[in-house]
Amino acid sequence: MAAANYLSSEDQFLCSICLDVFTDPVAIPCGHNFCKSCITDHWNISDRCQCPLCKEAFTTRPDLRVNTFISEMVAQFRQSAQQKASSSSSEQQVSKPGEVPCDVCTGTKLKALKSCLVCLVSYCETHLEPHLTMSGLKRHQLIVPVENLEGRMCTKHDKPLELFCKPDQTCVCMLCTVLDHKMHDVVPLKEEYERKKVELGKTEAEIQQMIQKRRLKIQEVKHSLNLSEEDADREIAEGVQVFTSLMESVERGLNELINTIKEKQKTTEKQAEAFIKELEQEISELMKRSTEVEQVLRSEDHLHLLQSVQSLNIQQPPPTTDWTEVSVRPSSYEGTVVKAVAQLEETLSKQMKKLLEAELKMVQQYAVDVTLDPDTAHPELILSDDGKQVNHCDVWKTIPNSKKRFSYRTSVLGKQSFSSGRFYFEVQVKEKSKWTLGVARESINRKGDITLSTERGYWTIWLRNRNEYKALAVPSVLLSLKSPPQKVGVFVDYEEGLVSFYDVDAAALIYSFTGCSFTEKLFPFFHTGNNEGGTNSAPLIISPVRVN
């Protein structure tokens, strides 16, 4: 029974110098017990021969002999502890890759339950028990198991890293503050831990917000893709309706039409899939970063959190794309059916007419409100108060000659600019013998005798000598129109690189610039031509768009 009582009081076998179980225990004259090597080393480096506990001094160094009774009790304690460790080790988890192993276990390493910042050792459940029961070891600081405990010691002074230097953004020991980091702003680890934890919380919230934005962007891309699919299905249906009424000889044209539309749709799908894939990849990276932040946020270890922030740089979200302006726009099918049907015989003219009417209605859905910009108007032009009409007056007005103003050609730009999407406007050209209409890029030259061409940044058509129509491409294209248009519609698809002109009343396509490369803002362009003694006095009028 006495042995059992001794074994139940494990702190009785603890040396107060090494804080470990006795090895060769000896008793000194005052009655206190120590490891023989511990008390011997203590007296060897001390000026006085006294008890480390009660401070009783001895005139001569006592003769140290091993206390056999205590030595036997310690042996029984060790044997009991080993048996207990052996019986419980099978119930504990073996350390797996990525887990912190117990530093004390020999042979099979068990999973560590805690790490001691004083001993700089990680313990499994069995080997941790002395730290939970012995009074001397209970004072040690235990934390969630971590690797590289040596990294918690100052490599220069071999002291615990207990402080944080703000200017140098590094963890330091007490000696560092009076030597290398003297006069620096130094705070306890806990204080910096709490501050960093707040910052990491904000970082986590920002990352979650970025993830949510990208998920919404995926929904937007999918919605745009659905719209594109609807457009493609509708266009295919119209094409089928046209070509199924023709002879077998035109079936090849139908197949070409369908293939063209499907190819455009595939391009749109590939673009959407690429966006989705990139967004999902960014979400994956952000979720990975979120997991890292969450793991650090769950840390109760001040030093571990701060060192993780410094080493992983997890406060900064991974590089991502700004998706604010990114979108998938349905492909433009304007002109697809028209080009196919135009290759057929004259018997298709009625069907062509129907198709053109439908096409014009489609582009008219992109109508925008355009007004003339007086700051760009040539000095001989007169603009209406509402900015919707312009004509030539043969009188040079004295007005500021700004960089924006045309100085030679009687031209003017619209106030509105466009750098994406689709837009459409209509201009009345009735009773005029000369005019030029279209769009121009922002950087065009506005001074001197300007050459109107696509190479110079103008996508326009003109009328000269009452019946000479041209598309000002390179080279220019002479246009053959069945009748002079009274109202011209201008349609632009920025991403598609398309500029089309329509005879609104006849619902006929006049000309299309295709494969254009737009890299800057586009402005509506208007050129009245000279008055020519009143023969060209009629104004150009920006008309409201009315869908028939």
In short:
This protein is α+β, with helices and mostly antiparallel strands and about 550 residues long. The chain has helices spanning about 1-10, 35-45, 70-90, 125-135, 135-140, 175-180, 190-245, 250-295, 300-310, 335-340, 350-365; strands at about 25, 35, 115, 120-125, 140-145, 165, 170, 185-190, 380-385, 390, 410-415, 420-430, 435-440, 460-465, 470, 475-480, 485-495, 500-505, 510-515, 520-525, 540-545. The chain has three domains: about 1-90, Zinc/RING finger domain, C3HC4 (zinc finger) (Herpes Virus-1, 2-Layer Sandwich), CATH 3.30.40.10; about 195-335; about 365-545, SPRY domain (Jelly Rolls), CATH 2.60.120.
Structure description:
The structure is a single chain. This protein is α+β, with helices and mostly antiparallel strands and 548 residues long. The chain has helices at 2-8, 36-45, 68-89, 125-133, 135-138, 174-178, 189-243, 251-297, 302-312, 336-342, 349-364; strands at 25-27, 33-35, 114-116, 121-123, 142-143, 163-165, 170-172, 186-188, 381-383, 389-392, 411-413, 422-428, 435-441, 458-464, 468-471, 477-479, 487-493, 498-503, 508-513, 522-527, 540-543. The strands form 5 sheets. A 7-stranded antiparallel sheet has the order 9-10-21-12-17-18-19, covered by helices on one side. Helix 7 (189-243) packs antiparallel against helix 8 (251-297). The radius of gyration is 44 Å and the shape is elongated. The chain starts with a helix and ends in a 5-residue tail after the last strand. The relative contact order is 0.07. The model is unreliable at 1-8 (pLDDT under 50).
